[in-house]
Design the sequence.
């Protein structure tokens, strides 16, 4: 008999499948569950973007593109980043089109991290950074961001986390799941610490278009930071294009060349149809993005006010499309809360601990749902809180 | 702000004043006042449910009637339009650009009701020169609401 224990790479087998997977599987099989779980837009991709994809197919654009992606698209990205975030990237050698932001994150970490190197990861945050670091043989160093700091990375926390083995600081803002953003003044303080080091910032800005009240600032726009930042962004969240798998990385050509090598051998190129669609998104969809953003904002206010009203303290999330209320007042753990809520009221939310230990005491609720849906869910959570009093 | 309120109410007339206040970050009092003004100024003309009548056995029939009119001096199309809109059977009356003049949506219990209405009440008007009646066979979408089937949420695999 074959011994798969000897077949498989321990580096991979040691990565635990997320424990809450089971919980999601239960939720998926239950009828009439009202979910606030999904982390992707409910809007359809704007029609003109879909149309651009269809047109490209009709015109026979069905071949590989260059490894880095269509030069016209890279040019559009260069314009877009310059226009929106005031950072200049050369489309020839400083921009790579990837299969979603995820591939860009993977490529960037793999290009930089050797076994034993440390990667600083603020948590609660999106779940991919830690396993990807481990796959590269790297050592995750976790910064536990705090509610009282609005879930920002503080200069003190960063200083304490840096060692002579630090290669990367992950900066996932606007943040899934906390909704936190880091403003210019916050980023400047971190930049001060990073400026004289060889640490690269992997700035995951996938939610950059979804900020409320304050415009997004990229750390790459801060003096001295462009040369030590890989900016990652994509089309999934801002243009409601999750299924198209379109992302990109921008950064110094020395780093991008290495990420491009990995991409070239592992991926070849991002999907051609999606690249044509993405071009339309960047050129002509500012209005659509603004419309969706406005809608998210109304849902956000409804949800945050709803949570606070039923007694779950919820800070104002200033970005992304999640609320991250505290459930500490119930005395339950996050997982307990979510499980009981699911069984008794058929409402599904994600325990904060899914995003790191520091998510304990919180739940993540997505507002990628209609206002009617959000109101019904909050009503049920309110009933649940009354019952467990 | 009034425009924002109108857009919300057009989407869902059952939003409470409080919902609207929260979503637009204004006070409930302000919402109340704005809505009162909008009603007084005649911008908001009513609040109605969107109903899929076909789900009832006693479903009604509707038709769109295209009407050609010889406009009267000084009155234009108003005289005919105003006459038509008084009928209970008439759901809407529009003056159109293009090959005909008035578009009238009529509902009745049966095909026969509508045929009778057209023959007796519409075609007999002096300045009406011709009518073309189209019966509605199926409703797919009404007032922005899809009636056929609700689009299912096909997301759900990716929770994190």
Sequence:
């Amino acid at each position: 008999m074959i011994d798969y224990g000897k077949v498989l790479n321990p580096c991979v087998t040691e990565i635990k499948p997320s424990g809450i997977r089971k919980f999601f599987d239960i939720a998926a099989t239950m009828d009439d569950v009202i979910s606030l779980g999904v982390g992707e837009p409910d809007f359809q991709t704007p029609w003109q973007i879909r149309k651009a994809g269809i047109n490209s197919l009709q015109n026979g654009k069905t071949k590989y593109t260059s490894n880095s992606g269509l030069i016209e698209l890279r040019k559009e990205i260069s314009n877009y980043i310059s226009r929106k975030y005031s950072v200049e990237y050369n489309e020839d050698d400083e921009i790579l089109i990837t299969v979603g932001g995820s591939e860009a994150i993977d490529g960037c970490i793999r290009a930089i991290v050797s076994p034993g190197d440390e990667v600083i990861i603020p948590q609660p945050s999106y779940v991919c950074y830690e396993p990807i670091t481990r796959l590269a043989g790297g050592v995750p160093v976790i910064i536990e961001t705090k509610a009282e700091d609005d879930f920002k990375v503080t200069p003190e926390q960063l200083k304490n986390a840096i060692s002579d083995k630090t290669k990367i600081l992950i900066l996932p803002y606007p943040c899934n799941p906390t909704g936190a953003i880091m403003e210019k003044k916050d980023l400047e303080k971190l930049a001060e610490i990073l400026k004289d080091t060889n640490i690269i910032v992997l700035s995951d800005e996938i939610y950059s278009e979804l900020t409320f009240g304050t415009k997004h600032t990229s750390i790459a726009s801060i003096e001295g930071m462009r040369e030590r930042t890989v900016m990652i962004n994509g089309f999934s969240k801002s243009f409601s294009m999750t299924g198209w798998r379109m992302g990109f990385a921008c950064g110094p050509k020395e780093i991008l060349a290495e990420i491009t090598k990995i991409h070239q051998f592992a991926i070849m190129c991002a999907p051609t149809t999606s690249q044509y669609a993405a071009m339309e998104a960047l050129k002509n969809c500012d209005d659509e993005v603004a419309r969706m953003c406005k809608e998210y904002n109304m849902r956000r206010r409804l949800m945050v006010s709803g949570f606070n009203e039923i007694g779950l303290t919820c800070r104002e999330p200033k970005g992304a499309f999640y609320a991250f209320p505290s459930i500490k007042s119930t005395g339950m753990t996050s997982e307990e809360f979510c499980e009981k809520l699911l069984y008794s009221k058929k409402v599904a939310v994600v325990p904060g601990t899914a995003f790191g230990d520091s998510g304990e005491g919180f739940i993540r609720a997505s507002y990628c749902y209609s206002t009617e849906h959000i109101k019904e869910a909050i009503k049920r959570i309110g009933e649940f809180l009354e019952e467990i009093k | 702000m009034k425009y924002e309120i109108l857009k919300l109410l057009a989407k869902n007339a059952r939003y409470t004043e409080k919902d609207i206040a929260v979503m637009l970050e204004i006070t409930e009092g302000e919402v109340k006042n704005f809505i009162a003004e909008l009603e007084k100024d005649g911008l908001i003309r009513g609040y109605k449910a969107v109903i899929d009548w076909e789900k009832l056995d006693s479903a009604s029939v509707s038709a769109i009637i295209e009407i050609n009119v010889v406009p009267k001096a000084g009155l234009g199309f108003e005289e005919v339009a105003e006459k038509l809109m008084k009928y209970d059977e008439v759901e809407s009356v529009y003056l159109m650009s293009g090959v005909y003049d008035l578009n009238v949506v009529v509902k009745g219990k049966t095909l026969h009701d509508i045929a009778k209405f057209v023959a007796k009440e519409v075609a007999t008007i002096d300045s009406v020169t011709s009518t073309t009646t189209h019966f509605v066979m199926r409703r797919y979408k009404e007032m922005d609401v899809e009636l056929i089937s609700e689009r299912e949420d096909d997301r759900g695999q990716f929770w994190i």
Q: What stands out?
A: Chain A touches chain B through 24 residues (CB under 8 Å). The mean pLDDT of chain A is 96.
